[in-house]
Amino acid sequence: MYYNVLKILKEGLNDNKGWKKTWQNPEIKKKYDVIIIGGGGHGLATAFYLAKEFKIKNIAVLEKNWIGGGNVGRNTTIIRSNYLLNENEAFYEFSLKLWETLENQINYNAMVSQRGVLNVFHSDAQRDSFVRRGNSMIINGADAELFDVDKIKSIYPFLDYDNARFPIKGGLFQKRGGSVRHDAVAWGYAHAADELGVDIIQNCEVTGFKIKSGTCIGVETNKGDILANKIGCAVAGSSSVLMSKANMNLPLESHVLQAFVSESLKPFIPGVITFGAGHFYISQSDKGGLVFGGDIDGYNSYAQRGGMDMLEDVCEGGLALMPTIGKARLLRMWGGIMDMSMDGSPIIDKTHIKGLYLNAGWCYGGFKATPASGWCFAHLLAKGDSHSLSENFQLDRFKNGYMIDEKGQGAQPNLH
Amino acid sequence: MTRPTRTKSSLINTNKKLSFVFNGKKYEGFQGDTLASALLANDVKLIARSFKYHRPRGIFTSGSHEPNALVEIIHDDYNEPNSKATTVELYEGLVAKSQNCWPSLKYDLMSINDKFSKFIGAGFYYKTFMWPSFFWEKVYEPVIRKAAGLGKLSKNKNNKNSEKGFLYCDLLIIGSGPSGLISAYIAGLSGIKVIIVEEDYVFGGSLNNEIFKISNMSPQAWVQSILKEIRKLSNVRCIENTSVIGMFDHGVFGAIQKLKESKIEQIFWKIVSKKALLCSGSLERLIPFQNNDLPGIMLSGSIRSYLNRWGVNNFDKVLLFTNNDDTYVTALDLISNGINLIGVVDTRDNPRIFDPKIKVFKSSQIVSAKGKLYLKGVDIVNKVGELTHLKCDYLGISGGWNPNIHLSCHTGVRPEWNEKIYAFVAGKTNVSTHLKAVGSANGKFSLYECILDAEKQVLEILSDLEMKPKKYSLPKIKEQSFEIDPFWFVKIGSQRKWVDLQNDVTVKDIEMAYAENFRSVEHLKRYTTLGMGTDQGKTSNVTGLAILASLSNKSIPDVGTTVFRPPYIPLSIEALVGSSIGKNFKPTRLTPTHNWARDNGASFTETGLWLRAEWYSQKNEYHWRMSVDREVNSVRNSVGFCDVSTLGKIDIQGKDALEFVNKVYCNGFAKLPVGKVRYGLMLREDGIVMDDGTTARMSENHFIMTTTTVNAESVYRHLEFCHQCLWPEMDVHLISTTDAWAQIAIAGPKSRKIISKIVDKQFDVSNKNFPFMACKEITICGGVLARLFRISFSGELAYELSIPTQYASSLVSYLMEIGKDENIIPYGTEALGVMRIEKGHAAGAELNGTISAQNLNMGKMVSNKKDSIGMVLSKREGLNTLDGLRLVGLKPIKANHQLVSGSHLFNSSDTITPINDLGYITSSCYSPTLKSSIALGFLKNGNSRHGDYLKASNPILKTEVIAEVCNPIFVDPNGDRLRE
Amino acid sequence: MIIDHPLLGPRDASEFIYLGDASLLNRPNWDEEKSEDNFYKYLYLRENVAGMHKELWFHQQGDRSWLVISRNTVTHEIFKVELATEFKKNMGKSND
After folding, report:
1. CATH no. for B161-282+403-464
2. Second CATH level (architecture) for the domain B881-979
3. How many Å lie between the alpha carbon of A213 and the closest alpha carbon of chain B?
4. Cβ of B161 under 8 Å from any chain A Cβ?
5. Does the model's pTM come out above 0.90?
6. Which residues of C4-30 are buried (b: 16+ CB within 10 A; e: fewer)?
7. Residue B158 pLDDT more than 80?
8. Which CATH number fits domain B593-646+740-836: 3.30.1360.120, 3.40.1280.10, 3.40.50.970, 3.30.70.100?
9. CATH top class, domain B287-398
């Protein structure tokens, strides 16, 4: 079904009785060319690009619960390409370019809104590192500007300039950064993939891998065995649990990241702002709620909830940056399971088991990567070797000493 | 027939009149009213407009689950949007207005949305607004954003005086209705520490809404009598106006207390409790039918609350619609107050007969509510299809009761379906939770069952805590039953039937979502936004589930449930922050010489939490470069001193201290003699540089390690990890002494002269007896304990003097005095930075967490002959590539050009592309010694490129400078001055 | 979360800093044939269990002791809290 305003008018006049399923509930086939495990943003995007760009015919996405229920439905919706290291920046800029044309590609309004991402800084040392990063961005084809305090004041007058413990000294601004309606991304990719014949199977949990002589030939699920030529795993925070079924230990730790939304208010925050003297970032959704968050709690967790002290920490950061939100009321808080990697950068690679591929390690930055991750993982699955933009995201880079460490924190996932 | 304006039973104080303003009009109420009860008593029915369709709305409930009556409270210096009129306690001079309507509440232009409801149902925006693509951001989105949002945050920053505190107890009781009070009474008598919190501004819970007798008293009088007993107990703390907003792991709760007539307006309590009882009662749910959102339609239990607790006596022509027994209590109370009760429309075939005076329309449903701005009447239909029209001004509806189990889900326990009451109750607890639901919150809907349940659960808790209960007496209550039929929504009719009033989600929306395959509970919620408003779905969630169950032909428990998450009610961000605002966001750490520096022209900079002097300006200096250049020249030509106390200091002692130091540094320390200091390079286990510093061997088993300022804490933690976790058998002890010792660097060709003037005579500081890298415990100024280290960051002859912090201030004054002949000056972090760049010393900018010893040209320092942290993995291929980054110096080829940190390096003939990116500049400054801009940076294969010309490209600052690669040690490369 | 410190009693988790899996206690030998591979596995590969997890916490705002905590990563229940030095010594004694 093709969506547009004429359809809405037509169906509205027909008392909305003619709407069809956004994606089907197909019967599971015995064998597929490619199985994607994980019905989140990355898994669904991979399936879509496999069908659309790489013309693979027989694809299934297996999701253990309902699609879009993991991190893609729990994030703070930010898209940007403001990374420091060339390996990352090139990849995320590719992703941002894909975001810019996504809605027409998938025929679903994901409300891609590029209203700017501003990272404020508070010291000379921070400024220097943002200059280096801004240069990386421009060198890799993205856009970046350095704002002084006065310029920031003219766009965001409500930040604290007078009474701040760490006065704002300037900021790195990416105009093309912004936000996207996260649920719509999952539903949109699902809809588009479904239209191209992809089987989306919900409530289907993979319980094991069928491995014969070092080759993976299929999966065992709660709905029976399914065979495939290639199997791609895109399950984010559940990666270690899944891959342990293939006897693999991964360079990952699963951590909880909390996110928060306020009651809806009339618009006053134009873009995304991140605080440089504490863990806090904020934007305002189209419905009016302030969407904000901070750091991970810091300990391994699969509970999708965190502690009260992190909530307080995030709110403190918020009031330090913009005292005016003091009266806004927290409405909801939730958590996701982050697959924190050992250098803070992702993994898109084959494994030592033939036919089994891994897409993981997104930490808390996976949402913005959704289109590029889908594209590059699809490339790897379709062609058997990495896309040039993801060739550095190797699983064994830690063994060989080729870490891609943006924050410089080393082999401690909770510091990334 | 005249009735008194307020009923006798009410809790309001009719002696205390209060005046207030709503939408510009003046009204009167009484102390004890909420804004909602006062408005109802004044016949004000139209309060607000709904979020999406801007439909007229009135007051729907009497509590914090109110979905409709949201107003903006206007204070002197700020506005409070999204305030529920049902929970705002009335005060003299209160000013409130409707939000989300224009130009006025009665004539809201945006109500035109309602006409287009067919086209703007749930999820419509996902299927359109895609073309033309730039229209989304430029046209559609701005319009949507402006229309969204219910209230407006005022620009004023005025934060309430908020505070935070901790409370500890054995038993936390949440809610002071009958179960809460009984629990507090029995538990309190036994002697355990109890805290009972009540969200409302009066204790008593549901009993405040009733008029039946308990122990021959009115319920309110009974509440006061048991409260009196409880308040006698010093081990029980009662707090009202306090909402428990969240339950976290291991018995940790967050609660927000609002205070009246106090300088502190709210307190956020963190409560740690061994056990907890959830006595939060239950919330009534609605029944969807056509146009069930008109002002005048309320929950029937809420009509009873307004009647009995707030004494609102002007209800007239009241009709009730129900599927359960509780509504009949409302009916009886209305009749006993002489109010015109039209009757009760009951979906059941054979409801119990409560009173023959009540007219009951059995087996009937309301088909449609009629009216434009207010309810005027309803159409009902019975089993055989007969339609009847009933005129009415008020309609009380009841679809059943949902135990208020919100908090019980906060630590991951899913609720369980109870077929007896057709509602969810708290799931089985796990060890993490400690919380049990009691009374109505546990599905026990009669007072009789409540009291029994409370007694049973408290006795269980006392037994768990190994406490004996003391004698107590409970009121005798008649046994009652509660009957309910599972009637969820009226299927008849094609007009809209509201499920979630606040977010304007109707039965049609749910049907449409189902058709589009949004069939799981979570999909339904997200696609339709059911339950995502400020009432957090308290009135709509279960009903929405029931509709989904009916559509998918499943039972409600099979369809599932959404999990409730904190906060229980919305709470302001400032409440969670307390007084950590403005300058109190984080502590400020001052160096021991801070005050002296401030009084002597210092300008300060932040280094983490520290304030450090960056330079000291003298009278004729109007630009910072003048001060910094002067300081550098003074140090290189004469002498200066700098407070370097912020650097980490760790005291390491023990028989195995030497071996320990040798294992944590990658370079050799095994042969370090007593009385000598050595530069130490500390790697992380992955072979990347963690920190650098020096370690001095003061005596056989006593070492003092320094770290950079920024890494003081993490290095100390790492050392304790090495000791406790890796080598606990080693005899070594560590103490962090950063704050105990002040450290003053004294540097320059004349520094020995200065040192000699303060060090006591018995210590020989000649070059022979105290050479470069020596260290010694000494005394200065006639016996003051001190430590002297001959180390240099500036590259000049230099010392660092360590003294107990309390002497630092007077020491620096003294230095200024005795150093007059040598023209001694203080210097700050900028000059310190310039000099270390001139000497090619790596500092924080270079040690950025991705740099190895090899990158620093220190690869050979990593000893292969011993075990040390990081040594093995430093050998990995990726860290030892032929074209690896190397630390280099850079000088612009044109004297007046400036090199800037953050620039990327390219061959001068290459284009600016990622493939051609060869490295970056880490530190840069103007060198007064070389009279040129200089920089340090990392360059691929840098050691082989000295003399080459490169492009330092900085597109974000729009500069590009050609620079020559050179030795990073710009000044005195052989280090002669150090050894003078 | 509340951590029951073996010496100091129950403390709030915010007084502590988390490091990671307690397998970090088993640092490999530096002078073995496969030491680079052993150190790689030691430092980078994790079980990352959804369930019972032994992990290392540092009492930063307290007595600065390292603790080994047995905690369920799905429910956050804490089952045991021991001093790392004790745990390590006992590791040496038992033969598992």
Report:
1. 3.50.50.60
2. Beta Barrel (2.40)
3. 31
4. no
5. yes
6. ebeeeeebbbbbbbbbbbbbbbebbeb
7. no
8. 3.30.1360.120
9. alpha beta
For the domain with range C2-94, which CATH number is right: 3.90.1140.10, 3.40.50.300, 3.30.2270.10, 3.40.50.150? 3.30.2270.10
State pLDDT tens for residues B245-290: 999 999 999 999 999 888 899 999 999 999 999 999 999 999 999 9
Complex ipTM, two decimals? 0.98
Residue B751 contacts residue B793 (beta carbons within 8 Å): no
Chain B contact set for C24 (CB, 8 A): 725
Model confidence over C9-39: pLDDT tens digits?
999 999 999 999 999 999 999 999 999 999 9
User: What number does CATH give the domain B488-573?
Assistant: 1.10.10
Inter-chain contact B724–C65, Cβ cutoff 8 Å? yes
Separation in Å, CA of B574 to nearest CA in chain A: 4
User: Which C residues, 11 through 70, put their C-beta within 8 Å of a C-beta on chain B?
Assistant: 12, 17, 19, 24-25, 27-31, 35-36, 39-40, 43, 56, 58, 60, 64-66
CB contacts of B720 in chain C (<8 Å) are 58, 64, 66
Strand partners, B169: B273
Cis preceding linkage at B132, omega within 30: yes
Chain A residue at shortest CA distance from B517: A21
Fold of the B1-148 domain: Ubiquitin-like (UB roll) (3.10.20)
B515 contacts A21? CB cut-off 8 A: yes
CATH class of B648-736: alpha beta
Confirm whether B161-282+403-464 and B287-398 share one CATH topology.
yes
- If we measure between CA atoms, which residue out of B274, B321, B642 comes closest to residue B434? B274
B108 confidence band (pLDDT: 50, 70, 90): confident
pLDDT by position in tens, chain A (length 416): 888 888 888 888 888 888 889 999 999 999 999 999 999 999 999 999 999 999 999 999 999 999 999 999 999 999 999 999 999 999 999 999 999 999 989 999 999 999 999 999 999 999 999 999 999 999 999 999 999 999 999 999 999 999 999 999 999 999 999 999 999 999 999 999 999 999 999 999 999 999 999 999 999 999 999 999 999 999 999 999 999 999 999 999 999 999 999 998 888 999 999 999 999 999 999 889 999 999 999 999 999 999 999 999 999 999 999 999 998 999 999 999 999 999 999 999 999 999 999 999 999 999 999 999 999 999 999 999 999 999 999 999 999 999 999 999 999 999 99
Closest CA to B888 of B976, B952, B957: B952
* Unique residue bearing structure tokens 């500890």: B168
Instruction: Give me the residue spans of the domains in chain C.
Output: 2-94
Amino acid, res. C76: H
Query: Cβ–Cβ contacts within 10 Å for residue B358, how many?
Result: 16
Calpha distance A236→B703 (Å, rounded): 46
Nearest CA in chain B to C90: B728
Q: Tell me which residue of A320, A204, A208 sits closest to A273, measured CA to CA.
A: A320
Q: C interface mutation test: which of B725, B736, B874 has the most C CBs within 10 A?
A: B725
What's the CA gap between C20 and A300, in Å, rounded? Answer: 8
- CA angle (B548, B550, B551) in 5-degree steps: 65
- Tokens in use for A146? 């350095």
Domain borders along chain B are: 1-148, 161-282+403-464, 287-398, 488-573, 593-646+740-836, 648-736, 881-979
Neighbours of chain C (3+ CB pairs under 8 A): A, B
Phi, psi of B584, deg, nearest 5:
-90, 10
Instruction: State which residue of chain C sits closest to B877, comparing Cα positions.
Output: C36
